[in-house]
Write a structure and sequence with these properties.
Blueprint lengths: L1 H8 L6 H6 L6 H4 L11 E5 L6 H9 L3 E5 L7 H18 L2 E6 L2 E5 L12
Parallel strand pairs: 1-2
Antiparallel strand pairs: 2-4, 3-4
Helix pairs in contact: 4-5
């Protein structure tokens, strides 16, 4: 999952070899089969730029979705970052979900019934 998250957020170490091997993936043929299909849980990607986003983030957690949040913009203001994390932890406690920092600028939040395994698969 670490590699998946690295790929999703563009993290991880980039080497010249990685750049040379980069190839755009065309997933449209796979996505066509899912168009119009709904799911009970979604993985939502968010960028926390300010506290005005908190109501929507909380709603997503209460709706049972998983949030992967880029918190780098909020880290520029320690008060905003601390308040946002405190609010997310309160929601997680309320729904019995889980929250963890993936990297120094990425947070994952899960709803009820999902836990984050803090051990890397190797």
């Amino acid at each position: 999952m670490g590699k998946f998250i690295d790929n999703l957020f563009g993290g991880g170490k980039k080497t010249k070899l990685d750049a040379d091997e980069y190839q755009e993936l065309d997933l449209s043929e796979y996505e066509e089969g899912f168009q119009g299909e709904t799911a009970s849980t979604y993985i939502k990607i968010a960028e926390l730029s300010g506290l005005e986003m908190m109501p929507e983030l909380k709603k997503q957690i209460y709706d049972g979705n998983i949030l992967m949040i880029d918190v780098l913009p909020a880290k520029k203001d320690k008060m905003v970052f601390d308040r946002a994390i405190k609010d997310l932890k309160a929601v997680v406690n309320d729904v019995h979900g889980d929250i963890a920092m993936i990297k120094e600028d990425q947070v994952i939040v899960t709803p009820r019934g999902m836990r984050i395994d803090r051990q890397k698969l190797k």
